[in-house]
Design brief:
Elements: E1 8-12, H1 18-27, E2 30-36, H2 42-51, E3 58-63, E4 74-79, H3 89-99, E5 100-108, H4 129-138, E6 141-143, E7 151-154
Parallel strand pairs: 1-2, 1-4, 2-3, 4-5
Antiparallel strand pairs: 5-7, 6-7
């Protein structure tokens, strides 16, 4: 594993919380799921937290600004299938990087579909791999070839 058991992980935009519940339960990490206040999936995530008895290992926090204003120091930030839904994607990335300790991991993917595919307006922007990787490098993150194209390590 890339992180030792007991590490603190932030799952930003956790949706229904599949990774958060798994990481907080069977693997033994401390997880803070952070989502936009009023997100429709939060009630279900809270139910899953209770159902799986994760009161000591899974915390749910919300924000209502374009970029989270919370302080959640951690070893890893997960931002899967959510960057293109952010009001301020690069501000959100800066926030995520600021939460990470040196050597911390960022798991971040990007939406590459052309605008005509975005018929429902759910994707606020699209990103290509090289633009994102270059921006992250300029902001203190290095791609991790050991773990694939979506993992970055904070210098």
């Amino acid at each position: 594993a890339a992180l030792p058991t007991g590490s603190h992980i932030v799952d930003l935009g956790p949706g229904i919380g599949v990774p958060a519940v798994h990481l907080a339960g069977s693997i033994g990490y401390r997880v803070t799921a952070v989502d936009l206040a009023g997100a429709r999936t939060l009630e279900f995530l809270e139910w899953r937290k209770v159902r799986h008895r994760l009161h000591g290992t899974l915390e749910i926090r919300t924000f209502d600004t374009p970029v989270p204003q919370l302080q959640v120091p951690c070893n890893c930030v997960i931002m899967l299938s959510m960057l293109d839904h952010c009001w301020d994607a690069y501000g959100t990335l800066e926030w995520a990087i600021a939460q990470l300790e040196s050597g911390g991991l960022l798991l971040c993917d990007y939406h590459t579909a052309p605008p005509e595919v975005n018929s429902e307006g759910q994707h606020l922007d699209t990103y290509d791999q090289w633009t994102l990787v270059t921006w992250l490098r300029e902001h203190g993150m290095d791609a991790s070839p050991k773990y694939g194209d979506w993992m970055f390590i904070k210098r």
